[in-house]
């Protein structure tokens, strides 16, 4: 076995993976020793099967059912406790329980009630080891069936029964490629080498006798690569014959659709075998990375990723809500029957490896607009999710709270090794320090914004950026004082800070260490989206008398020519509409400034928590503003929420301001400043543009959906809006058509 430093090794942890079932999930627990019969029911010799059932429920909750003596049955809720729930959840591969239910909350079960008066300590490996009245001994009815709610996080390395059943000592948890060519050791990602599996305290090889391209596909997929390549075995044979090899796995027989090598049928080498791989050699594979991870720009152009599928709202590369393009408009996928096979098809067509997780229940934020697909049933070999069988959606089938998402396997790039944050109160915050060459140093904070901070948090694997910090004297716990990077300007989508624009030579006005850039990261973020159709439905023109506009003028809500008007006589022509702003993210949207710095506006009698919360612009054909308005967030609050979500923010009585996840803030068309002053605008065809959080002051998981545009026709008396859409809702082709649209030739909307 070879000893090679880990930083040049491509590895993949055993994914926290499992195939979701819509109504019933089935899990196998680990083997358990026989307990004393006096304190608990006599366990079966086979592993106890446990499943979640019932309706309505999510994949991590439900009525508990046990399989005993060939029959499924329930547990009575008498004496049930959170300790019992912990044992059951861990038995099914979840890290812990967050709650339990009584009185058949998930519906009444059928058949036997297997256990009653169950009392666990909480540390037992299986529910059979807990005290109870014994198997089948119960005085309950199914009205008392117990249920559990498990924390939606998997135990690392837990292997589900509906994927594979392996003997514990032969469980494969980590796989890596060990490069042999000197040049390959230095380049990231590592795409070719000897396949090795973690074994005891070292690494072992796999015998290549009977090795197929399907096996290679699985290995490449779990290491983050969408495709496999042929490898020059003769070159490796010469090299590996001179090496000492230890073969832990004798043969592998993958179908090619598995998401992990552990899911394939494996034969392990016998400990006393004299020749574990007679006539063979260690398995070697070569993988083709997706365009995002390629060094060769020529190959990048040839390897185009799908333009009909995208991931939205994820904090890390290769994760997000799945959206598909149909009739030039993007829409989501419903999570019914959503599993790792379908998720892997999406991951591979986007240039990543197989899926690490198939997420349900809008876990990476809810989409807006249409839901196109339901009950997607890919076999795993399809080139695109569009080729998989699925059902079309009817309105009662799905809602956006059921949007499907994925976390894909991505190649190990080692990007987190060249950046660190220090001095913070937790691992999620601190002053940014980067490695340039062999030297560590700070980053100039001039021009440091949420977008740059977003890239830092992504590079470190810490989620989203909550705050971009420009003074970090209170985090001064490092002896690094030299500034090594300045002029950093990112788009926000880069994988590392080094991919952003920055000065060739460091130049910083405030070069002192206390002005170094810092970040505060978070696993979740808000995501604001405007309801485009409501704007289109509520638009109208009002000629408002000047004597009613004194407060609006004071808050700078009128165009510049208003200052020259003959106050209080005359009027201003206002383009009015309602704005309904939804938070579809995973964290509440709160103003950047704390309430101590909110500004009181006596004229309207309210506080402004953000100076500029929204931009309203009217643009002509070449994109020049012909009129503009802006909206201070004089009141960020929950006007209404989706079912099951409670309002948390209210402006009255100097209350907390914000927008809760799953709620929306409605600025009605008839309130002050909810307009664009078009008094000076000539008749013609225009584009109405609304941008929320325009300066990216508050962190969001997705800034591409902050803008909304409409085609606008104004004839000097009336106004029409059509094609109102969120900035990222249309295909590129449809967006180009929208920009070129000459306007309507009549007053009817076609």
Mean pLDDT: 83
Distance between the termini: 72 Å
Provide the structure class: mainly beta
Sum up the overall morphology in one term.
Answer: globular
Major β-sheet annotation: 8 strands, mixed
DSSP helix count? Answer: 10
- Level of helix content? 10-25%
What Rg is obtained from the alpha carbons, in whole angstroms?
30 Å
Explain this structure.
It comes from Stegastes partitus. It is found in: Cytoplasm; Nucleus; Secreted, Extracellular space. It is a single chain. The chain has 750 residues and is mainly beta. It has five domains: 49-150, SRCR-like domain (Mac-2 Binding Protein); 172-288, SRCR-like domain (Mac-2 Binding Protein, Roll); 306-409, SRCR-like domain (Mac-2 Binding Protein); 415-522, Mac-2 Binding Protein (Roll), CATH 3.10.250.10; 529-739, no CATH class. The protein is 11% helix and 28% strand. The protein contains ten helices and 42 strands. A hairpin with a 7-residue loop joins strand 3 and strand 4. The longest helix is centred in the middle third of the chain and has 11 residues, at 450-460.
């Amino acid at each position: 076995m070879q000893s090679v430093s880990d930083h040049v090794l491509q590895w993949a942890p055993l994914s926290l993976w499992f195939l979701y079932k819509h109504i019933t999930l089935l899990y196998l627990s680990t083997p358990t020793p026989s307990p004393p019969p006096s304190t608990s029911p006599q366990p079966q010799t086979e592993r106890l099967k446990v499943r979640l059932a019932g309706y309505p429920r999510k994949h991590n909750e439900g009525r508990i059912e046990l399989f005993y003596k060939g029959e499924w049955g329930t547990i009575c809720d008498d004496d049930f406790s959170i300790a019992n729930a912990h044992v059951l959840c861990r038995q099914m591969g979840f890290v812990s329980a967050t709650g339990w239910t009584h009185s058949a909350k998930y519906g009444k079960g059928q058949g036997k009630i297997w256990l009653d008066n169950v009392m666990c300590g909480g540390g037992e490996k299986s529910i059979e080891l807990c005290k109870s009245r014994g198997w089948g001994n119960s005085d309950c009815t199914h009205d008392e069936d117990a249920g559990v709610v498990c924390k939606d996080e998997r135990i690392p390395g837990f292997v589900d029964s509906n994927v594979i059943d392996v003997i514990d000592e032969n469980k494969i948890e980590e796989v890596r490629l060990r490069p042999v060519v000197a040049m390959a050791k230095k380049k990231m990602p590592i795409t070719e080498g000897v396949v090795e599996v973690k074994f005891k305290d070292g690494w072992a090889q796999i015998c290549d006798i009977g090795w197929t391209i399907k096996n290679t596909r699985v290995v490449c997929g779990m290491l983050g690569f969408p495709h496999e390549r042929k490898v020059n075995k003769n070159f490796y044979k010469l090299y590996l014959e001179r090496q000492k090899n230890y073969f832990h796995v004798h043969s592998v027989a993958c179908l090619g659709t598995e998401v992990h090598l552990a899911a394939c049928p494996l034969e392990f080498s016998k400990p006393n075998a004299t020749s574990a791989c007679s006539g063979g050699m260690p398995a070697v594979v070569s993988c083709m990375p997706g365009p995002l991870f390629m060094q060769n720009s020529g190959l990048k152009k040839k390897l185009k990723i799908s333009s009909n599928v995208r991931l939205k709202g994820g904090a890390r590369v290769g994760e997000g809500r799945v959206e598909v393009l149909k009739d030039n408009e993007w829409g989501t996928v419903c999570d019914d029957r959503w599993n790792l096979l379908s998720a892997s098809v999406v991951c591979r067509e986007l240039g990543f490896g197989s899926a690490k997780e198939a997420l349900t229940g809008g876990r990476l934020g809810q989409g807006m607009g249409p839901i196109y697909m339901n009950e997607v049933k890919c076999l795993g070999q399809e080139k695109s999710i569009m080729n998989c069988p699925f059902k079309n959606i009817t309105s009662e089938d799905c809602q956006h709270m059921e949007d499907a998402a994925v976390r894909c396997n991505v190649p190990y790039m080692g990007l987190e090794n060249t950046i660190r944050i220090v001095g913070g109160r937790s691992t999620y915050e601190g002053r940014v320090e980067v490695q340039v060459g062999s030297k560590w140093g700070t980053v100039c904070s001039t021009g440091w914004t949420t977008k740059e901070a977003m890239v830092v948090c992504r590079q470190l694997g810490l989620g989203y950026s909550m705050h971009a910090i420009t003074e970090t004297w209170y985090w001064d716990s490092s002896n690094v004082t030299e500034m090594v990077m300045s002029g950093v300007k990112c788009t926000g989508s880069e994988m590392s800070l080094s991919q952003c624009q920055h000065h060739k030579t460091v130049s910083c006005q405030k070069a002192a260490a206390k002005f170094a850039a810092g970040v505060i990261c978070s696993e979740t973020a808000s995501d604001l989206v405007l309801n485009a159709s409501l704007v289109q439905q509520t638009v109208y023109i009002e000629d408002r008398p000047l004597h009613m506009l004194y407060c609006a003028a004071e808050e700078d809500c009128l165009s510049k020519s208003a200052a020259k008007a003959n106050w209080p006589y005359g009027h201003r022509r206002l383009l009015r509409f309602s704005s309904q702003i939804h938070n579809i993210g995973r964290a509440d949207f709160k103003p950047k400034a704390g309430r101590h710095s909110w500004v009181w506006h006596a004229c309207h009698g309210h506080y402004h928590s953000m100076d500029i919360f929204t931009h309203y612009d009217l643009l002509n054909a070449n994109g020049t503003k012909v009129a503009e308005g802006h909206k201070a967030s004089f009141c960020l609050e929950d006007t209404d929420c989706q079912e099951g979500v409670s309002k948390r923010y209210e402006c009255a009585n100097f209350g907390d301001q914000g927008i809760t996840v799953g709620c929306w803030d409605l600025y009605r068309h008839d309130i002050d400043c909810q307009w664009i002053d078009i008094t000076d605008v000539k008749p013609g065809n225009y584009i109405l543009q609304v941008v929320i959080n325009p300066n990216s002051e508050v962190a969001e998981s997705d800034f591409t959906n902050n803008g909304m545009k409409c085609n606008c026709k104004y004839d000097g008396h009336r106004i029409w809006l059509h094609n109102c859409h969120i900035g990222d809702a249309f295909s590129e082709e449809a967006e180009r058509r929208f920009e070129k649209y000459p306007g309507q030739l009549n007053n009817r909307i076609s």
